[in-house]
Each structure stands twice: as C-alpha cells, then as structure tokens.
Amino acid sequence: MIPRRFLRLPVIACFLALCGIVLYTIHSTGHIDKLNLYRYTTGNKAVYRPASGKPSKVILLESGGSHEEVTTAFLTSLVETTSKSSAFIYPFFKLVRFQMGPIMKSTIGNHTNVAKYVHSNKLKEYKTRVGRPDVVLSITCEHDSKEHSAVFNEWLAQGVSLVCVVHHADRWLANSDYGHYERLSPWIEKNQVTFVTLSEHVNQNLKNESAATWSPEHQEKLRTKVFTPVFRAPTRPHKSPMPVLGLNLQGDFDSKRRDYKLLFSQLAKIVDSMSSVKMYLVGHGIPPEVPEQIKSKVEFMTDLSFTDFYGHMSEGLAIVPAFASNDYYSKKASSSVPASIIAGVPLVGSQKLLDAYTYLSENEVWFAEEGETDIDAIHRLVTETPSPEVLEQQLRFRQRKLLDKRESLIRLNGRIMVDLLQHVSSTDESYYRMEWQWEW
C-alpha cells in the first residue's frame, strides 16, 4: 500500500509547476509599474466650466496638413470635457488625410458644440465665422504662427489665449533661423501663451535647452504642459494561434527617420530561424530598397485609412521604432509610441525609450536589454518563451494594459485640457451657428 504522503506528491508538484508558470509570466511581463502620473488615472472625468458662465469660443487650428493624430487627440479631449453650455469648437484644418474623418466623426458623436471643419485658408474669415475666439489651440503652431501671422497679430491685440503645440523643441532657440521664438515673444511678454509638448523629454528640452537662450524675463513667464496624443480607434482581435508574428514599422518612410540598413541586416540574420516573422512597413512616402534575401519577409502597406492602419497594427506582435537618430529621445516625439497605445500593440522599448516617454511602463513594451537592437529583442522574446501559448498570453497581457493606459491618458488629457481652456473673458457675444453638421 502506497503511503498517503506519496499520493500527495503529484498534487504538490502540479501546484509548484503552476506557481512557476505564474511567476514566469509576471516576471516576463516586466516589473510592477512605478507610481507616476500616467498610471491609470481614475476618478470622475474633468469637466470644463467657463468662469464667465457663458460658453467659450475655441478655435482648433491645424494648417500644417500632417498632424491628424495630434488633432484627433485634442478633439477627443475637447469632446470629453465640453458641451454646448460651456464651449463652442471651431475647427480649421488644412487637410484630413488617410480618411481620418470617420474616426473624428465617431469621436464627436452626438456633441452639437463642434462645428463642421473648414479649410485653414479661411482662417482670415474668423471674424464672421467665430468672432473673437477666447482660446486658440494651435496644433501646428510653428507653422500656423508664420502662415497666418496677420491673424495671430490680431489675436494678440485682442487678448486671445494661445495654446502653442511644440513639435521641434530645438527650433525654439532665441537665435534660430526658424524664428519661432521671435514670433511668439510678444505672446510670452503678455502672458497669453501656453506651450504644449507631446512628451516629457521634449518638454525638458524646450525648458532646459531652448528657453535657456531666451531673455530672463521670458524664461520666468514660460508656461508648459505635456499632452499625450492618444485617442480611441477600432482594434481587431488577434488570431489564435497567430499564423504570422507581425512586426510593424509605422509612419513616414524617410530614411532620415528610420535606420533601415540596420533593421534589414538584423532581420536577415533571424529569418531562417523564425519563419513565422514578417515585417510590415505601414505608412507613406518613398519605400526604402529591401535586400533580395528578405523581400519575401517585408511587405509595404501604403496609404491605408487610419481605421485600417490601427486595425492592422493591432493584430501584430510588436511595433518596431528603428529610430535613425537620437532626436526622438531628446528633441521631438515619435508617433510610434502613442500609436502603440492607440492600437494596443507593444512597442519594442529600451530603458532609453522609457526614460524619454515616461507615460510608458516596462510591462507595456517588449523590453530591449542594454546593447540589444529591436530585432535582437524580438528574437530573444520568441526563442526564449516556452511556447506559442505563453507568448500569446504575454501579448494579451500587454494589450490589455495598453488599452487601459489609453483610457487613463484620455482622462488625464481631459484634466490638462480644462487648464488650457482657462482664459480672460471678452465682451464678444457673437457665435457662428451655421454648418454645425459634420458631413464627410
């Protein structure tokens, strides 16, 4: 007769094995988030209430024609925080590319305080369309302030509050040929401008590098906010089991932005041992030349609608940044990072990336160890994970965290938007009430 204690051994062994799997999964998905501003902001949504008691007039301006994602993120925050009793929103856009319209329309929903957008060339007609705006949210401020300098000068004289989104922090040096600081100096002087950056590292560069060259008085008057450009977009369920391990590189195909030489050479080293991996270049521009050896493993997906763009990426294993320079860690923000959150697909991220984009946590990315390339990190992930099922489990874990983070950031952005909409009230009672129905 077998002693009872021996009968318990298989049960104990199974229990220990289960504990091991759980511990492996927890460890492999990264360490617990550090407590920071960006982790799961909770509580009631922020609501904008104008101090004057009457609805504010807000112009949403993008005359550069290339920042639909940032515009949609701002539009999301406006819809989340305002109503027709608190603000009327007047969009002026140069372009709405790649069929962003349906996502914008879905974002607006039944809100009747957002006017039909008009071309930014009609901004000079703002007096008849809007009257004096209370707040101007300038998404492409570096371009807007130059392209529409006469209108900006009128707004300055009228006491309008300006929100100036900074995309290139290094172009705001006092002696820069771009002239951004020179054009905005009168706004700084009169305390009528708040500068907004799209990541903390850009904010630090603006304050510590560029603004350090400004006059001492202007340095003291500098006001900045950080706004993470995320919004809701449709995602697709992953197929199980995953027939293809899709790696996505998104955005402009410009070789000055992405290190294709390193990316393709690294991909060539792993294709034989990882037959299910495929690289998707999802974006626009002139495609880079792909080496013959890996042509079957690289697919270009160009000029997709934003709905298909985020939908495709949401089915993948990872987004690969493949930055060609350090600028995306110091001077400007990459759209790949918020795209990871919008689509709910992990980015390959090093500690350097996490230090720059502080709204991301280690267990929301595929972590790249020191000295590893993006492809090295993916190769280690796939080859060292015990099974495809465990890999899918880790992917699902990150997807849930990223989509939760998306909602958290939208809520946080709402609080920031409420601050940005504060202004000195005017006596202008006019409102433009035509063309309030969005038609696409």
UniProtKB/TrEMBL annotation:
| UniProt-recorded name of the protein | Uncharacterized protein
